[in-house]
Design a protein that fits this description.
Elements: E1 22-27, E2 34-39, E3 46-51, E4 59-64, E5 69-75, E6 81-86, E7 88-93, E8 101-107, E9 111-116, E10 119-123, E11 127-131
Length: 135
């Protein structure tokens, strides 16, 4: 859903129905680029949504071709981010979600809160902290 008037009215911007999944978490690392995790308890493949124009349009992209209960998503910039969920380890992308690789620092990950491009937190089975001093 999209609003341009502070929440008075909302418009559906998803171009593809989420195939039995529902929007769960959202991450906008900047004004134009945004990502939404789509939780799906069973079945495959599993998708997420991506926008490159501030939410005007959204593209459905494949996350995994196996079943996954996807939940937490967070990006530190338009290219680098993590996605995790219940019963599987965290995955990382460095190309804006075109490919994902296992990055097993978080299990049962429900939320990722990005403070800035050098500090983020994840919450799941434990609390996780990502930090670095320079990009």
């Amino acid at each position: 859903m999209f609003t341009s008037d502070g929440g008075e009215t909302w418009v559906n911007r998803a171009t593809t129905p989420p195939r039995g999944q529902w929007c769960w978490k959202i991450s906008f690392p900047d004004r134009l680029n945004g990502y939404v995790s789509l939780e799906k308890i069973s079945g495959s493949p599993v998708y997420f949504y991506k926008t490159t124009n501030g939410g005007e349009t959204w593209e459905e992209k494949t996350f995994l071709n196996t079943a996954a209960d996807e939940e937490g998503i967070g990006f530190i910039n338009a290219s680098t981010g993590w996605l995790g969920g219940w019963f599987f380890n965290t995955y990382k992308t460095t190309d804006g979600g075109n490919s994902w690789n296992s990055d097993p620092w978080g299990f049962n990950l429900n939320r990722i809160r990005v403070i800035n491009d050098t500090l983020a937190y994840g919450a799941g089975a434990r609390i996780y902290k990502f930090s670095r001093t320079a990009l």
